């Protein structure tokens, strides 16, 4: 690796290298740093020592100080950006408007229409020779007036025009959606900040502003934004699975493996690093560059496949233009790339863009059913028309098929075909997906104002169906502004802050040291921003409370920290969810060591064997004393809703150094200094919000790491538990004991006995939270399945956030890992924002239902009218162009109008719909059929006796190309008027009487209804031949309007019929039934991935597949032939992994396309269920399914893992077994 790295330097021409070397006088060139970041472990350390002597030497070359950081000098920062690049990876180019138009044109029904219209156009220009027209019978009758037969082309042209309209509208909607998504992305990216040291001060700067040479503070939960070398670290563990596919955490330390890579997650510990590579030069950036964030790269790769030999040289030249070292990595890719690129492009079209949410699943199913019905109807229509014509012409009139008449007959057949296709177009509700998109996009935009930053569009609709919320306590239900309110030290229980003069100096001194040193040095209490405000708390809030306590004792913690700076700390055991405590070792002047420890009181007290008495002397602390202390001190504190923290220390004598890695031997025999009770007050608006949730039929559960008494007290304050209710409050241990069988496996039946009553889960681990969420989601005991929302802020909440139907991460307190795994980010960390999300979610659902009710009425009526009209009068009363106009207003405009209704508080007064509630309820079905009956009655009356009523010529049985009649114009106009007024009816779907309620609160709706009305007037009065309309007089218009308004009256009549009497009505649009649950699980387990993550995943697969393709194939086959599958049931999904096991070649190439990393799909369908099913108990380490980037890469019999992990020397089989 070393020599290869050196060679990369030679890509620069000598002169350029010299210039770079001295550019700005920095002692490292870009390529040097890049080749350094290629190395790992011992190699890396050796390279640093050879080139720079040590990390400080590297800092000197980069003109930065390991302790003070860079100076905030704008010119210096700018110079660094120019030489080493910006910390920004250019995004993929968005699709152009023309591309979107092309995509919209791919719609099958539109293609059929286009073809029919073109044939019709072609035939209309062909005039049969005049003499024989008699011989063709009455076929050409009516075409006597010349102008009319000339105008035969208009219909075809009009159809093409309306197709263009539909396409443009669709493309525009897609375009604006894409634009919004990009805006959202950049908003999320701007919000990510990182802590750096500049001028010796900590500062939070946006990630894009990081430069090479910055000293960055790395802490638990961070997503690293750039590559760097560790200067100093405490117990640092990194999850590098997003780059390497290895799910085990990697220990990082300045003397063993100091390389930190961008895109990896900090799972434990803290430290400082010097940034060495940013943007496209960082490890993540290199992968992006390989992918070619733009399309031109793809083309290059296409060419590369064709000219394998010249590839290396070409690449090097290209790479020189980009930057040196990329070339080095580009070569290994060429073998894999060639053939697969084209395949990939082909696949791209066919792969669905993203996994459907519950609602989209129901809608697609419904649309397909309606489409099929429409297809049958249109086919029958065409057949009947053709048969009727043939029998009439050739049998009854006894004509023979003369050659010269062929064009005329064909023209008739084309006309019939167009009528058939039009029926189909009207029958297919293509407005449905549009309505969903508009409604979701509108909601997402508005939810921003309500402090909900939605990362995945469908989350907001799922939220409307939520039946359970599992919430964190700290920071979500409480203010996360903690203060110490009670203490127990020196045998005395103080109910408020003790006076320092009452404490022995020794105890006080130990306490101040224990708090100041044994907490993250990034945690600080800063002076208030405004006069008279509260001091600002920066960093971990519990530690802030303790530091605030030191300040209240009139001591300065900063002095203690200055005496023992962070570099001098001997060993740190950082806090994590397993330890639930933090310990720090310092060196004493006499050569001994002192360990300070703090943590959850019951955990730390168990390790204490001594306690300081009132004189500050040790006295022994036996289990009996401990029980008494728990009863007298800890429980009373907990019952007041306080978190109890125990602070302790231990001295090690000089001489033999203890074995620090054996933690269990180190953190025992402690001496308790004090126990403090920390209050975290409930947010004032939370009880009201929880009350709203309960009214809306949503169960709120609290899952917390706190003591059970504290948790119970807070739950009572919030209103999660009410006196006199039958509820359970459990601790994590007890919960596990109840849900596991003798073998320690989780049993769903046991879980089902517990969760319905469970309200508080205390002292819970991340695994418990994940188990609970999964248990509730998988449970089938109720009449409907549960939809679960989860809130979380810590790295350890990742698995639960991911498993939940909707994951909420905290915007302020949340770690990057939590945000990455979440669907919605609460920008104000407030529980009441969740209630707003529920409201918006239900609103989306209702908007879709409103639109459906309206759309289906139109469809039913239009199809029946076209069908029966065609059968009885050989011509559809509604012409193709008119149908398309109806389709346009009904689909596109109505979806806009009805999908943008604002939500009301009333939405929170009904129960959630749940997963398998049908889309079309009985009430809606009643409305649809009721209005259809009214409209059909009117239209058929007009069709058959309209000419008598209005005293006009009948439009029935008109020959081909005859002028448009007033009769059919009235039918068309009446039809549209009825739809317009029915659109107002559709605003209410639960049988409410007042359909005008709040109509002026929705300007879009009013504009669209009036606009449609205006355009309709223009079409009827001036539409003429293209729209087959003839102008109507005032009286006829008034009749049309009168019939339309009748819709509103009829709506009141329908509302009076009680739905319960109509047992015969079926509901439609169900979610999957119980037997189809697996499909739905797929939908839940797959999540949409942001563009960047998607690109990254592609990158990882490509990257590793390119490097190790052949090796991998052999290994994969071996792995699968091994006994891996013997103990596992065969997954019962549609496409099980077994189908891909025939030959290695087939396995890799075919399967690769199901891997999300390649395309825009998400985690593979075929694997989501087996993955869940096989994992008997979720893994201990919280990261197994922790971050969005690696969700496609960690393995539980995912094939995707095997190609990825193969870069490591471990065999895939081995890694499979470990993660299984």
From TrEMBL:
<keyword id="KW-0547">Nucleotide-binding</keyword>
<dbReference type="GO" id="GO:0030165">
    <property type="term" value="F:PDZ domain binding"/>
</dbReference>
<feature type="compositionally biased region" description="Basic and acidic residues">
    <location>
        <begin position="298"/>
        <end position="307"/>
    </location>
</feature>
<dbReference type="InterPro" id="IPR018303">
    <property type="entry name" value="ATPase_P-typ_P_site"/>
</dbReference>
<feature type="compositionally biased region" description="Low complexity">
    <location>
        <begin position="1196"/>
        <end position="1212"/>
    </location>
</feature>
<dbReference type="Pfam" id="PF00122">
    <property type="entry name" value="E1-E2_ATPase"/>
</dbReference>
<dbReference type="Pfam" id="PF08282">
    <property type="entry name" value="Hydrolase_3"/>
</dbReference>
<keyword id="KW-1003">Cell membrane</keyword>
<keyword id="KW-0112">Calmodulin-binding</keyword>
<keyword id="KW-1278">Translocase</keyword>
<dbReference type="InterPro" id="IPR036412">
    <property type="entry name" value="HAD-like_sf"/>
</dbReference>
<dbReference type="InterPro" id="IPR044492">
    <property type="entry name" value="P_typ_ATPase_HD_dom"/>
</dbReference>
<feature type="transmembrane region" description="Helical">
    <location>
        <begin position="416"/>
        <end position="442"/>
    </location>
</feature>
<keyword id="KW-0106">Calcium</keyword>
<dbReference type="GO" id="GO:0005388">
    <property type="term" value="F:P-type calcium transporter activity"/>
</dbReference>
<feature type="transmembrane region" description="Helical">
    <location>
        <begin position="375"/>
        <end position="396"/>
    </location>
</feature>
<dbReference type="Pfam" id="PF13246">
    <property type="entry name" value="Cation_ATPase"/>
</dbReference>
<feature type="domain" description="Cation-transporting P-type ATPase N-terminal">
    <location>
        <begin position="49"/>
        <end position="125"/>
    </location>
</feature>
<dbReference type="InterPro" id="IPR008250">
    <property type="entry name" value="ATPase_P-typ_transduc_dom_A_sf"/>
</dbReference>
<feature type="region of interest" description="Disordered">
    <location>
        <begin position="1164"/>
        <end position="1220"/>
    </location>
</feature>
<keyword id="KW-0067">ATP-binding</keyword>
<dbReference type="GO" id="GO:0005516">
    <property type="term" value="F:calmodulin binding"/>
</dbReference>
<keyword id="KW-0406">Ion transport</keyword>
<feature type="coiled-coil region">
    <location>
        <begin position="1075"/>
        <end position="1102"/>
    </location>
</feature>
<dbReference type="Pfam" id="PF00689">
    <property type="entry name" value="Cation_ATPase_C"/>
</dbReference>
<dbReference type="InterPro" id="IPR006408">
    <property type="entry name" value="P-type_ATPase_IIB"/>
</dbReference>
<feature type="region of interest" description="Disordered">
    <location>
        <begin position="297"/>
        <end position="353"/>
    </location>
</feature>
<dbReference type="InterPro" id="IPR059000">
    <property type="entry name" value="ATPase_P-type_domA"/>
</dbReference>
<dbReference type="GO" id="GO:0098978">
    <property type="term" value="C:glutamatergic synapse"/>
</dbReference>
<dbReference type="GO" id="GO:0046872">
    <property type="term" value="F:metal ion binding"/>
</dbReference>
<dbReference type="GO" id="GO:0016887">
    <property type="term" value="F:ATP hydrolysis activity"/>
</dbReference>
<feature type="transmembrane region" description="Helical">
    <location>
        <begin position="153"/>
        <end position="172"/>
    </location>
</feature>
<keyword id="KW-0460">Magnesium</keyword>
<keyword id="KW-0812">Transmembrane</keyword>
<keyword id="KW-0472">Membrane</keyword>
<dbReference type="InterPro" id="IPR023299">
    <property type="entry name" value="ATPase_P-typ_cyto_dom_N"/>
</dbReference>
<keyword id="KW-0109">Calcium transport</keyword>
<keyword id="KW-1133">Transmembrane helix</keyword>
<dbReference type="GO" id="GO:0051480">
    <property type="term" value="P:regulation of cytosolic calcium ion concentration"/>
</dbReference>
<feature type="transmembrane region" description="Helical">
    <location>
        <begin position="928"/>
        <end position="950"/>
    </location>
</feature>
<keyword id="KW-0175">Coiled coil</keyword>
<dbReference type="GO" id="GO:0005524">
    <property type="term" value="F:ATP binding"/>
</dbReference>
